[in-house]
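Fold this sequence, please.
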Amino acid sequence: MEILTVVAPVFAARCSVLVGEDGACVVVDPGAGAGLQVRQLVAARGLTVRAVLVTHGHADHTWDAPALSRDLDVPVVLHAGDAYRLEDPFGTLGVLDPRHDPSGPLAQALRAAGVDVASWRAPESVEPFGAAGSGRTGDVELDLGGVRVVARHAPGHTEGSTLYLVDAGEQDPVVLSGDVLFAGSIGRTDLPGGDDAAMAATLRDVVAALPPASRVLPGHGPATDVATELATNPYLARAR
């Protein structure tokens, strides 16, 4: 499967376009400002978007998801544990927006990128998978209009944080890690829904169990691989 990358202007969030057979594709994590780039890319390549997939419900990864969903008549797909976040992108950020109104750091970053902070509308078509509530819910194989990925629940950053394994049948899949794992670091756990113990379990039982040669495409920052993180990432070392 081909993986194309777009970087959103707000918080430099990574948006991936997974291209399957016959021009079908899935857009993963379209953050604020990524939607226009995605539309241009899809048009230039003659692709057909089958779904919008998100690794977790934070607004820097989902802001353009509702508009793409409506305009392209495709669902927004995410773990059930984070579905509630799509109703209130500001109020679920806690310390990043302590007053629960669109005037905190997120709103400032949106305005700096020329995004109207009042433009948010929750998506009309949402297809959750897994189950909300405490505890990891394991793997779900998703067939999104012919584009297949394995969703591996990885809570800790948020309740519904999920790794997406691309070409999961191969020896060394590509891992879209969202804000679970970065090159040399991990996602923060001090926001609402974050959980230190859940993150430690995810790092120990989910991330460390991935094939070492697997390439990792984080939600922010450079790509890495599992072997490098196992050898050098201090958070993984502590969790093991």
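Helices lie at 34-45, 59-62, 65-72, 105-112, 196-207, 226-232, 234-239. The first strand starts at residue 2 and ends at 7.
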